[in-house]
């Protein structure tokens, strides 16, 4: 029999490294893993069950909600609520943070920011989607959690992770000591360690950007895209374009193979499209922990001081040398 390590075993083994509220933190991660399995079950049935299509509502971003957006949001919040380790959740699907303080969680020490279902335009067409989350320590010491508990810099994250519901389902997370990936074995219903200590190559050959927006991009980005398309034997160009349109899946591929992901600001999205608190920050923490880099073109994503829960940012992230090159073009 091949020896394998489940997510639950791994979390317990690593809990000794964690300096603060170890037991609670382990339970919090485990609860997220359980909700991920429930969401995975529904994602896998999309097409069979009455789970695809629009929920007929708009979320706070003015974007149409899909049924799975709503389902995933409910499942993650329910898991965090019953776990009792988290006092407040900020979700893409809700305008305001949701206080989940209860008798069980009155001493809860953690704050979670989450995009419960990322890439929702890909659900109905059987293309990979994901979940992405960020965990912070609560800063206030009593009463209801405040917005200051949520609006912390990405650099203060204690953990971040994503789940990619793809040709197989994987959970990848970091607590600031490297990045580990777990693949869901559906026959036993467990995430098993399959990608220990993931490192992103410093240079890759993949660039991922929605080139349909080319005309609206800043000059520096246009020049970088042209650079990717040029022929050059020494640097292996032209690079390969790969873009799924689900942030989590695009980042996951580039993390394993090397490459760069770009979602620039543009004339129609002046601050970019992706959300800082529950898309850019967790992805940036993971990519940095794997040895890569994440920038908004000028500064490190993790150093941005947030002012609003749903604020957007440009995002350039992946292999360090590639992000450096983009910054050079943007600063020219
Ligand atoms: P969400 O489904 O959570 O709203 O996120 C969609 C995001 C992200 O996953 C992806 O990288 C990006 O939107 C794709 O945007 P374009 O369709 O503009 O390329
Ligand atoms: Mn998203
Ligand atoms: Mn989403």
UniProtKB/TrEMBL annotation:
Pathway in which the depicted protein is active: Carbohydrate biosynthesis
Keyword terms, alphabetized: Carbohydrate metabolism, Cytoplasm, Hydrolase, Magnesium, Metal-binding
UniProt subcellular location: Cytoplasm
A Pfam family: FBPase
InterPro entries associated with the record: FBPase_C_dom (IPR044015), FBPase_class-1 (IPR000146), FBPase_N (IPR033391), FBPtase (IPR028343)
Gene Ontology cellular-component terms listed: cytosol
Subunit: Homotetramer.
Protein name as annotated: Fructose-1,6-bisphosphatase class 1
Lineage start: Bacteria, Pseudomonadati, Bacteroidota, Sphingobacteriia, Sphingobacteriales
């Amino acid at each position: 029999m091949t020896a394998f390590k489940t997510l639950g075993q791994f979390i317990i083994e690593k809990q000794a490294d964690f300096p603060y509220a170890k037991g609670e933190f382990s339970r919090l991660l485990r609860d997220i893993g359980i909700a991920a399995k429930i969401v995975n079950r529904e994602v896998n049935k999309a097409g069979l069950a009455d789970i695809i299509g629009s929920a007929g509502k708009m979320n706070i971003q003015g974007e149409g909600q899909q049924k799975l957006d709503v389902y995933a949001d409910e499942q993650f919040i329910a898991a965090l609520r019953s776990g009792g380790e988290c006092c407040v959740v900020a979700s893409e699907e809700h305008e305001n943070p949701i206080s989940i303080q209860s008798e069980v969680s009155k001493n809860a020490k953690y704050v979670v920011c989450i995009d419960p279902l990322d890439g929702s335009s890909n659900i109905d067409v059987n293309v990979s989607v994901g979940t992405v989350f960020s965990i912070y320590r609560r800063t206030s010491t009593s009463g209801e959690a405040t917005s200051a508990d949520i609006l912390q810099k990405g650099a203060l994250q204690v953990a971040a992770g994503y789940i990619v519901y793809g040709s197989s389902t994987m959970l990848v997370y970091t607590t600031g000591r490297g990045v580990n990936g777990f693949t869901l074995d559906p026959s036993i219903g467990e995430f098993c360690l399959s990608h220990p200590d993931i490192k992103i190559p410093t240079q890759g050959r993949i660039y991922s950007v929605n080139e349909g927006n080319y005309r609206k991009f800043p000059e520096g980005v246009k020049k970088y895209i042209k650079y990717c398309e040029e022929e050059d034997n020494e640097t292996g160009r032209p690079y390969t374009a790969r873009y799924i349109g689900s942030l989590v899946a695009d980042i996951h591929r580039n993390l394993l193979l090397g490459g760069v992901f770009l979602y620039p600001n543009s004339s129609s999205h002046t601050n970019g499209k992706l959300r800082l608190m529950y898309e850019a920050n967790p992805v940036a923490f993971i990519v940095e922990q794997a040895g890569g880099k994440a920038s908004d073109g000028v500064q490190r994503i993790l150093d941005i001081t947030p002012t609003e829960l749903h604020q957007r940012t440009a995002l350039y992230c992946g292999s360090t040398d590639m992000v450096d090159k983009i910054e050079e073009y943007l600063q020219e």
